[in-house]
């Protein structure tokens, strides 16, 4: 991670951002280790309860070189919990001005979610240039990003929702897409079976391919 943390630069360099939904605390460290061994540089923990923030704290200690995000943040209290846990940034599935303001007050890098051009306009009015399009596939997939590039040439997107191990390449080829969320890298059956080799191999396959990007 750069000394002066820049979220857009970090995500652009990472491209692949797996999301972990913590269901069994005992699987947290080996899952993350497998992802890192596969080449992953950024990991997000779904912020569904207090255990998720405890997981971020634990991962900060165990993997100091990994960039950690709090995903699916929907409340101001979640932003404070993310700061307290040591998250490098937070991301939301939607956009509210209260969350934007709360993140700024806490000096926490923040990626709000958008789905419509109106929400993109709202983000721009707040000076935000990095947003998450969620859900990306129902919105129209890579073609939608092409259309938005003509309307909002200054916006950069992280694509999330409905992306798999094949389609992610098409998203990353879009000049205005800096990264994709990669839930397919942490399949629940592999986690339950403690098949860390499979998770490592999935990450390695995703992170080692060459993308004609930006």
What does this structure look like?
With 214 residues, the protein is α/β, with parallel strands linked by helices. Helix content is 45%, strand content 16%. The protein is built from eleven helices and ten strands. The protein has helices spanning 7-14, 28-37, 50-62, 76-85, 97-105, 117-125, 136-139, 141-151, 168-172, 188-192, 196-208; strands at residues 16-17, 19-20, 42-46, 67-71, 89-91, 110-111, 113-114, 130-133, 156-159, 177-181. The strands form two sheets. The chain has a five-stranded parallel beta sheet. Strands 2-3-4-5-6 form a five-stranded parallel beta sheet, with helices on both faces. Helix 2 runs parallel beside helix 11 (196-208) and helix 3 runs parallel beside helix 4 (76-85). It is globular and about 45 Å long. The two termini are 20 Å apart. The mean pLDDT is 94.
Provide tags for this entry.
single chain, 214 residues, alpha/beta, five-stranded parallel beta sheet, 11 helices, 10 strands
Q: What is the overall shape? A: globular
> Main beta sheet, described?
5 strands, parallel
pLDDT under 50 segments (min length 5)? none
Distance, first to last CA: 20 Å
Cα radius of gyration in angstroms: 16 Å
Helix-residue proportion: 40-55%
Please count the helical segments.
11
User: What share of residues are in beta strands?
Assistant: 15-25%
Question: Roughly what is the average pLDDT, rounded to an integer?
Answer: 94
Structural class: alpha/beta
In terms of quaternary structure, the protein is: single chain
N-to-C SSE string, H for helix and E for strand = HEEHEHEHEHEEHEHHEHEHH
Secondary structure tally: strands: 10
Strand order of the largest sheet: 1-10-9-8-7
């Amino acid at each position: 991670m750069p000394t002066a943390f820049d979220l857009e630069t970090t995500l652009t360099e990472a491209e692949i951002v797996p999301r972990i939904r913590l269901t069994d605390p005992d699987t947290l460290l080996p899952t993350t280790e497998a992802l890192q061994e596969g080449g992953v540089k950024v990991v997000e923990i779904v912020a569904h309860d207090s255990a998720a923030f405890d997981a971020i704290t634990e991962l900060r200690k165990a993997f100091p070189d990994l960039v950690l995000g709090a995903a699916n943040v929907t409340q101001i209290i979640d932003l404070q919990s993310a700061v307290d846990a040591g998250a490098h940034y937070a991301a939301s599935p939607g956009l509210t001005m209260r969350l934007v303001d709360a993140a700024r007050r806490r000096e926490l890098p923040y990626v709000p979610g958008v789905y419509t051009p109106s929400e993109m306009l709202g983000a721009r009015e707040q000076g935000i240039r990095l947003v998450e399009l969620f859900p990306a596939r129902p919105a129209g997939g890579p073609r939608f990003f092409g259309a938005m590039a003509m309307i909002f040439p200054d916006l950069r997107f992280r694509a999330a929702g409905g992306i798999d191990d094949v389609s992610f390449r098409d998203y990353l080829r879009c000049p205005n897409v800096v990264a994709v969320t990669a839930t397919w890298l942490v399949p629940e059956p592999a986690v339950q079976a403690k098949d860390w080799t499979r998770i490592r191999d999935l990450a390695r396959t995703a992170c080692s391919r060459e993308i004609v990007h930006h």
